[in-house]
Structure formats: C-alpha cells, structure tokens
C-alpha cells in the first residue's frame, strides 16, 4: 500500500484549504489571482534573479494561514494535526502588550523546519491561543464563564486526532486514510453554520473582537490565508486599482534598493459574512460578522539576532522621527486609533495613508544610512543568514584561501545563498490583528498580566516550541563547516 508522506499531506492540505477559503471569501480569489500576475511579471522582468529567494514553483504555492484557539488542550490537538503534516511549533509571539493593540492571545507558528521539507511545501500557520486568565482583559466572572464555554466544546472529531497520531508516528498515511484525514482536517477549519449566541458574542466583543471570534462560537475556522508575492508594492497598487481598499501601510521594512529582508505584509478587510445568530429570546436570525480578511506578504532574508536588533531599532526610530516631522496642522492620533474601527483605518498607529507614506520615507532614509546595503554586507556583518558553498571551479590565482568570511567571499572561494525568513514579526502581526478588528476592546493596564513565554507555551502545547534563530543558525553553521572542509580550512 503506497503511503502519502507528511510533506505531501501538508501540500495537499494547503491546496484544499485554499480552495475552500476561495469559495468562502471571494476577495481572496482576487488576491491570489493578482499575486500570480505580479509574480509572473517579476519573473519576466528580473529573470532568474526573481527566484533568488525561492523557486517560482514554491512561491506560487506558498501560503500561510492563521487560526485561533481557546485553551491549551485545543492547542495540543492542533499541534497533533499539524504534526501529522510535519509542522512543528516555532517561535513565541506575545500580542497582549504591543503598543498599538492589545489582543488577549499568545501565539506560535506551526511550520516545516528542515530544508527538504520546506522545499516540498513551506505551508505555515500562525496559531493564537486565548488567555482568559489574563486579568487585564477578563474579570473573574467572565473568565469562569469563558473557560466553562471553552471546555464544553469540541473542535476536532476524535477520528481526525487518531489519524493525525498515526500519520505522525508512521511518517504518513496509506492513501485512503490520507484522504479521510485531509477531508476531516479541512472541514475542521471551515466556517460553521451553527447559530451563534448573540448576547454572549457581544459580551466578549466588548473586551476584544478576537476574544469573541475565539470564545463566542463553538467551532474554529481559518481566519485568513496569505499568498506570497514577489513585489508587494506593485500588488498593493493593483489591488487598489481593482477597487479593493487596502490598509494604509505595508508592514515591515520599507521599500528600498538594498536586499529584501524578513517580511513585508499588507491586508484588506474582507466583506462581512452572513452568520446565523441566536437572539436572547431564542429566535434565530441571520446577521453578519466581519472577522476574516485578506493578507499578502513578501519574504526576504532571515536576520541574525544582531540583524534583528538593528531592524527593531530602526523601526522604532522611524516611528519616533515620523512623529516629530508631522507637518503643522495635521493631527496624529496616538496609540488609540480612531481608524481601528473603520474600513480604511489600520496602520499600527492608526494613521492615515499620508502619514503611512511619510513614515515609510523616514524609514527608508534611515535604512539607507544604517542598514547593510548588500547581501555581502549582511553576511560579513553577520546580520543575515546564508548557506555558504565552496566554489570548486573558481579561477586559481595561486593564493590559498584564508579562514575569514569576508576574504573568502571577496576572493570567490565561497558563494552565499540567502536563507529565507520563514517566520513572523510580532509588531506586524499586531498590526494585522488591529487593522481587522471592529472595535477597540478594553484592557486594564493597572493590573499585571499572566506571564507567558516560550517555555510556558511549550508546556501548554506539550511539545518544544523551537527557537527560530537557532534553526537558521544551525543551517548556516552546517553549510559553513561543509564549505570549510571542502576548502581544507579550519572553522570559518
Ligand atoms: C493572526 C495575525 C497575525 C500575520 O501574518 O502576522 C498574522 C490572526 O489574525 O489571527 O497572521
Ligand atoms: Ni497572517
């Protein structure tokens, strides 16, 4: 009996989820269509250079999804389902404290971690877990009712979890069971037609729209699926040209002439979707809820801890400078964004499009002064991650290689291939959450939040949450050791 590997399960799952989401949210289909057009245009324009950060085959199929669950138990089940598809929890994101938004969740991302598995299909899912125990958001009474509601629901059928355990243990599933697994897994993330208790939903919504989306319904659903695009500025223009209102800003690094690093993302609010509501008097009506949306992203080179520190520093300095250079007469809304509840609102500071453009210009000039301007500089300053390859057919000039990275690169002994950033950015994630919330929510900052970190999240999941930096570093170091050996050098 032929077996479907975890990698093939993952690729099939991503494809089917995308088909389902396209049926549920038509604007997503437009987004995928426009992304493909842009990618083909970039390929025509830039040729092979367009594929430096991933083959066009990979990029065309590439998606990330986002889901939200309510309890550690649910998170453990999700981990098992993704584990069946070779996806491990990587990274810890705390979205409760970000300046621009306060969302009562902590998150990780499930994704493949080896080069081979990433090459099969890089599908990743940003996964958030509600924190009902955080007193800044939930008082004791609401917490009790919320936890009772969550513990009474069942998100995943036992058959799905059993198939997942088998796939994880065996490295895949025989064809028929693979089919069954995929069907159940995709179904588990479809938008449910079960009636929603309106009063309960609205009570949670007053605290946080995300709390209502998670704990106000008895099921879970995919919140968005994000295609990858090679030129996100061009995509932004084309979507706007098609009459789709994008959020004000592209989150992440500014557009500039230097290397693409990390992640740039932007999004639009999907239309409200019809949902069945149960009124307090027991009658059932059709209302509408607006929780799902479209997002698109461009991925660049993974940064080392040093590179990331510089990135974070430049981002906060750009914010600062942009605030200082506001033209007279214009008002800036501070942390609490009036735009948060409007369709067009949504950059991290709730700024308008003009302010977003100004901030981008400020950021760009900072980057041009301080960020490594080439892949070589990123490599030599040890700010970006690369795999290094010994160049066997280098023209010989009689001089032996020396064990120094810059010298080896400059003399052509080593070739550096960028490692693509496979993870997320907390600040961008907060911006994505915030831009799509329908209300401000409430948070009492006079109280102290329940502490959460990577270790505690690992305990909650019952699996080690991996450190993304360590993964990139191990890959880079392996390649360096191999290259050094090939050149007959000690460690580089
Ligand atoms: C997740 C938001 C974060 C991203 O791409 O940064 C995210 C959510 O809305 O559930 O998806
Ligand atoms: Ni996303």
UniProtKB/TrEMBL annotation:
<dbReference type="Pfam" id="PF07063">
    <property type="entry name" value="HGLS"/>
</dbReference>
<comment type="similarity">
    <text>Belongs to the 2-oxoadipate dioxygenase/decarboxylase family.</text>
</comment>
<dbReference type="InterPro" id="IPR009770">
    <property type="entry name" value="HGLS"/>
</dbReference>
<protein>
    <recommendedName>
        <fullName>2-oxoadipate dioxygenase/decarboxylase</fullName>
        <ecNumber>1.13.11.93</ecNumber>
    </recommendedName>
</protein>
<dbReference type="InterPro" id="IPR047869">
    <property type="entry name" value="YdcJ_bac-like"/>
</dbReference>
<feature type="compositionally biased region" description="Low complexity">
    <location>
        <begin position="326"/>
        <end position="346"/>
    </location>
</feature>
<keyword id="KW-0560">Oxidoreductase</keyword>
<feature type="region of interest" description="Disordered">
    <location>
        <begin position="324"/>
        <end position="355"/>
    </location>
</feature>
<keyword id="KW-0223">Dioxygenase</keyword>
<keyword id="KW-0408">Iron</keyword>
């Amino acid at each position: 009996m032929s077996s479907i590997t975890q990698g093939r399960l993952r690729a099939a799952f991503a494809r089917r989820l995308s088909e389902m989401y396209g049926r549920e949210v038509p604007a997503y289909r437009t987004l995928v269509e426009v992304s493909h057009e842009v990618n083909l245009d970039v390929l025509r324009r830039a040729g092979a250079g367009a594929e430096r950060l991933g083959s066009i085959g990979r990029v065309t199929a590439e998606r990330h999804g986002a889901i939200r669950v309510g309890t550690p138990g649910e998170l453990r089940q999700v981990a098992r389902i993704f584990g069946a598809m070779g996806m491990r929890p990587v990274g810890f994101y705390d979205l409760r404290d970000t300046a621009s938004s306060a969302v009562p969740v902590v998150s990780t991302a499930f994704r493949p971690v080896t080069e081979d598995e990433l090459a099969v299909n890089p599908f990743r899912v940003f996964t958030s877990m509600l924190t009902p125990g955080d007193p800044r958001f939930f008082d004791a009474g609401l917490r009790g009712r919320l936890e009772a509601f969550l513990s009474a629901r069942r998100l995943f059928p036992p058959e799905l979890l059993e198939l997942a355990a088998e796939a994880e243990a065996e490295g895949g599933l025989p064809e028929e069971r693979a089919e069954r697994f995929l069907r159940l897994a995709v179904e588990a993330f479809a938008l449910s037609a079960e009636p929603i208790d309106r009063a309960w939903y609205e009570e949670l919504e007053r605290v946080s729209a995300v709390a209502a989306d998670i704990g106000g319904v008895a099921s879970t659903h995919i919140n968005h699926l994000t295609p990858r695009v090679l030129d996100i500025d061009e995509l932004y223009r084309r979507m706007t040209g098609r009459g789709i209102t994008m959020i004000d800003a592209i989150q992440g690094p500014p557009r500039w002439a230097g290397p693409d690093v990390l992640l740039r993302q932007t999004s639009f609010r999907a239309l409200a979707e019809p949902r069945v509501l149960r009124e307090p008097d027991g009658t059932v009506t059709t209302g509408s809820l607006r929780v799902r949306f479209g997002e698109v992203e461009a991925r660049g080179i993974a940064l080392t801890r040093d590179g990331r520190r510089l990135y974070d520093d430049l981002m906060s300095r750009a914010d600062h400078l942009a605030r200082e250079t506001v033209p007279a007469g214009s008002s800036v809304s501070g942390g609490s964004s009036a735009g948060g509840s409007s369709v067009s609102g949504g950059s991290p500071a709730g700024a308008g499009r003009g302010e977003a453009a100004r901030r981008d210009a400020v950021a760009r000039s900072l980057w041009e002064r301080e960020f490594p301007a080439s892949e070589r500089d990123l490599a030599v300053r040890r700010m970006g991650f690369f795999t290094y390859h010994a160049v066997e057919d280098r023209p010989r000039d009689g001089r032996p290689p020396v064990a120094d990275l810059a010298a080896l690169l400059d003399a052509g002994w080593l070739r550096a291939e960028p490692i693509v950033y496979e993870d997320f950015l907390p600040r961008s994630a907060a911006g994505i959450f915030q831009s799509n919330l329908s209300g401000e929510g409430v948070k009492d900052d006079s109280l102290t939040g329940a502490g959460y970190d990577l270790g505690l999240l690992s305990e909650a999941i019952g699996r080690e949450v991996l450190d993304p930096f360590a993964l990139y570093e191990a890959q880079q170091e392996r390649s360096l050791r191999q290259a050094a050996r090939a050149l007959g050098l000690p460690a580089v």
